[in-house]
């Protein structure tokens, strides 16, 4: 299965989440930036509010797409099991954490401005991204959302690796993946168009939830 782009993937994912349509206690949280176009389609279909939960991957120096962990709003930090062939010193790790923390704060201010974060207590939280490779980034997002005491947390993505689904099933109440290929490799391989989502597109979609 290949999706045309993130908006197409979002429309397909939305149908897989149809059971939540029309409920007043549902809130859709996107992981920016790539998860926002997907989540916009989901929120539009479900008639639910859309917001973001900013999470930053902690990439290996020189191999940034390979996650050694992730951080999320509220000081949450999750670390992956580091391969023995990828030794990382405490100094290097701290430098990566500092850099990504600064970027996390920048994005929160850019996307939300003075607007308060959504109230999650007692609500059904749908956490949406454009794909789940290792699951480390979404893992951090789940822990951050869980701290706000929601009714339940549903992780949703158009495509996910079996490993990510297994990991996230241990922390989320439900994991929904339209496509879970055994040979996953990379999220972008399942999209015909996987161009980077820019900050301005994120802001525009967050302002246009209709």
Structure notes:
- It is a single chain.
- This protein is of the alpha/beta class and 210 residues long.
- The protein folds into 2 domains: 6-53 and 119-207, 3-Layer(aba) Sandwich (Rossmann fold); 57-111.
- The chain has 6 helices and 8 strands.
- The protein has helices at residues 6-16, 35-46, 90-112, 136-146, 162-168, 199-207; strands spanning 26-30, 50-52, 55-60, 63-72, 76-79, 124-128, 152-159, 174-179.
- Strands 2-1-6-7-8 form a 5-stranded parallel β-sheet, sandwiched between helices.
- Helix 5 links the parallel strand 7 (152-159) and strand 8.
- Helix 3 packs across helix 6 (199-207).
- The mean pLDDT is 92.
List keywords for this structure.
three-stranded antiparallel beta sheet; alpha/beta; Rossmann fold; five-stranded parallel beta sheet; 2 domains; single chain; 6 helices; globular
């Amino acid at each position: 299965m290949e999706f045309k782009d993130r908006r197409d993937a979002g429309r397909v994912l939305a149908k897989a989440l149809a059971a939540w349509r029309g409920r007043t206690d549902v809130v859709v949280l996107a992981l920016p930036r790539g998860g926002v176009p997907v989540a916009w389609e989901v929120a539009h279909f479900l008639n639910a509010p859309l917001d973001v939960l900013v999470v930053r991957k902690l990439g290996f120096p020189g191999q940034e797409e390979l996650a050694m962990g992730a951080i999320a709003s509220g000081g949450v930090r999750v670390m992956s099991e580091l391969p023995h062939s990828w030794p990382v010193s405490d100094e290097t790790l701290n430098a990566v954490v500092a850099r990504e923390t600064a970027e996390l704060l920048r994005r929160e201010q850019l996307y939300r401005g003075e607007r308060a974060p959504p109230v999650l207590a007692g609500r059904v939280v749908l956490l949406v991204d454009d794909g789940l490779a290792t699951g480390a980034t979404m893992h951090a997002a789940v822990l951050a959302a869980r701290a706000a005491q929601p009714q339940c947390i549903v992780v949703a993505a158009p495509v996910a690796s079996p490993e990510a689904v297994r990991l996230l099933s241990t922390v989320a109440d439900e994991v929904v993946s339209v496509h879970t290929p055994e040979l996953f490799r990379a999220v972008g391989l399942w999209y015909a168009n996987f161009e980077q989502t820019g900050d301005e597109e994120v802001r525009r979609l967050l302002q246009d939830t209709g």
